[in-house]
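Aim 2 progress update. The chain analyzed this quarter is reproduced below.
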Amino acid sequence: MAAAGAPDGMEEPGMDTEAETVATEVPARPLNCVEAEAGAGAAAEDSCAARGSLQPAPAQPPGDPAAQASVSNGEDAGGGAGRDLVDLKIIWNKTKHDVKFPLDSTGSELKQKIHSITGLPPAMQKVMYKGLVPEDKTLREIKVTSGAKIMVVGSTINDVLAVNTPKDAAQQGAKAEENKKEPLCRQKQHRKVLDKGKPEDVMPSVKGAQEHLPTVPLSGMYNKSGGKVRLTFKLEQDQLWIGTKERTEKLPMGSIKNVVSEPIEGHEDYHMMAFQLGPTEASYYWVYWVPTQYVDAIKDTVLGKWQYF
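Predicted structure tokens:
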């Protein structure tokens, strides 16, 4: 006997509806306290991570030398960072050397560089750029610019050792004999020039001082005929220019055999000076009223080496 209910082939009304309702309306299980806190913590971490990725990198503190060097010079700190280089033409013994050198290096460091190039010991160098280069000042301080010509005079150890003893003895003997003679300023040929007195435009003298060559020509002097004469030291060309009203003689410094001088009696802050242009004293070119503070600088510059005798 069939159970009472819906006939075969027919579904009982409301069954599908209830199933769908159960399937679609199952309520979400409430989270317990542990699960809720864990979820909130993860969300917070995600939020912090997102914010952190947007934060800028911490700025370098002001005054950080590494930061400043890398920014201002475009290179890593160390290895020459922050050192401006200048192109120099170093001229020694009529030979030119093109080098790059740090602008903030001192004259002493420049001498070491010259030593590495020429073999000329620093103690035997005279380095000139608009006068003698001070060892304790930087090239920036003495206003060296790129392309500057640096003149170097001096002798290597081999040059000094090559000077033979007989020559030294002969020169010392000649000096001793010269000292026995009448002072030059009393000799007739010089007296006629000195008796004219000081030139009106004579350069000031500093007795007891030694100074570098000035950047301007030495003027206000007389030659042996009593005419005005000026001396211009063309270091870049390794020449001495002797100028008069009539003409200017351009002498290679290497052609000048010797330089002699003597204080003028009664005016010891001035010298009379001669440049030997040939093998004998007859070739002396005399100049009168040379300020005493420039005498040593003239000799060192013209002769191009230290005087050891």
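The radius of gyration is 45 Å. Residues 33-54 form the longest helix (22 residues). These observations will guide the mutagenesis experiments scheduled for the next reporting period.
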